[in-house]
Design a protein that fits this description.
Order of helices and strands: HEEEEEEE
CATH class: Mainly Beta
Number of domains: 1
Number of helices: 1
Number of strands: 7
Shape: rod-shaped
Largest sheet: 4 strands, antiparallel
Strand order of the largest sheet: 3-2-5-6
Oligomer: single chain
CATH architecture: Sandwich
């Protein structure tokens, strides 16, 4: 009886230490980073609402030089204007988990 109980407990202990297998997949997202002459540039990605790259107002505020803008992977058209003049018109293809740097002249 003692040996049977010991065998059952041993089976429970060994089955609790089973190998588990799984796949971890990161969420699909890509990032854009704007560098160069970016102050007061207006950026439009595809048909999204345009936004303005503004210089920081204090030391603790992030700037476009160290800020990543999240977007989905795939093909995107980036338009950058400053003072009504287009300075960048580029089509980029973004891979998953990749950061693309956009140089603004």
């Amino acid at each position: 009886m003692k040996k049977a109980l010991l065998a059952i407990v041993a089976c429970f202990v060994l089955s609790a230490c089973g190998y588990q297998e799984g796949v971890i997949q990161r969420a699909e997202r890509s990032y854009l980073k704007f560098t160069g002459n970016w102050p007061n540039a207006v950026v439009q990605i595809d048909s999204m609402q345009p936004f303005t790259l503004l210089p920081p107002t204090g030391d603790s505020k992030p700037s476009p030089d160290n800020t990543l803008y999240q977007t989905s992977p795939g093909r995107h058209r980036i338009l950058v204007t400053r003072g009504g003049v287009m300075v960048v018109d580029r089509v980029v293809v973004l891979d998953n988990q990749v950061t693309m740097e956009v140089q603004i002249p």
